[in-house]
Design goal:
- With 186 residues, the protein is an alpha+beta fold.
- It folds into two domains: 121 residues, Chitinase A, domain 3, CATH 3.10.50.40; 48 residues, Thrombin, subunit H (Beta Barrel), CATH 2.40.10.
- It is built from two helices and ten strands.
- The strands form two sheets. Strands 1, 2, 3, 4, 5 and 10 form a six-stranded antiparallel β-sheet that branches.
- It is elongated and about 65 Å long.
- The N terminus is likely disordered.
Length: 186
């Protein structure tokens, strides 16, 4: 699931960059959208395409995930593609900078929402997933895949939790800025 989320963020960053570039054409101009190039930027600013490596742990020091040995995370700064607390902390950093960032639940994945717990009939959940802590995926009305966690199993029902798995957790990032690019018209 983490790999999928990472791919979605990267795909979103690329699509966001392409969308931003296509929206920069001059109104009323008869020519096609002007050509743009990505140039190295001095520091992280809104609109910059940023690439970072990171290791994420919880407040107890428990490992959650890392880009070590994998593709780094690429996103558009200021586009809301990463959690607000992390985005704010990275603003102004330069390539090569390293920073330890602690993100509160309110600035990360939020606090657990009691309304996100739902009781459903047991027969709607595969038998092998009817265990507390089991993670499943479901589809939202608009077609997005949403992770759910089995919170409680009773006689004929299962209580599922639609909160993000990291909701309510203080997150600790150890981040290194690998690349910063800015779009410039040719």
């Amino acid at each position: 699931m983490k790999k999928l989320l990472g791919l979605l963020v990267i795909s979103g960053a690329v699509l966001g960059a392409l969308f931003s570039l296509t929206q920069l054409s001059v109104p009323g101009a008869s020519q096609a959208t002007p050509a743009f190039t990505l140039k190295p930027a001095n520091e992280i600013r809104d609109g910059a395409i940023v690439t970072v490596e990171y290791t994420l742990t919880d407040n107890n020091g428990e490992f959650i995930e890392s880009t070590s040995g994998k593709e780094p995370l690429t996103y558009i700064h200021g586009a809301g593609q990463i959690m607000p607390g992390l985005e704010r902390a990275l603003f102004g950093l330069k390539v090569g900078d390293q920073k330890k960032v602690q993100v509160s639940p309110e600035e990360g994945y939020g606090l657990p929402d009691e309304k996100a717990f739902q009781e459903i009939p047991k027969d709607k959940i595969p038998p092998d997933a009817q265990k507390v802590g089991a993670m499943l995926m479901t589809k939202s009305e608009d077609g997005r895949m949403i992770p759910i966690r089995i919170h409680k199993v009773t006689g004929n029902t299962v209580v599922v939790d639609f909160n993000h798995p990291l909701a309510g957790k203080t997150l600790n990032f150890d981040v290194k800025v690998k690349d910063i690019k800015a779009a410039e018209a040719k």
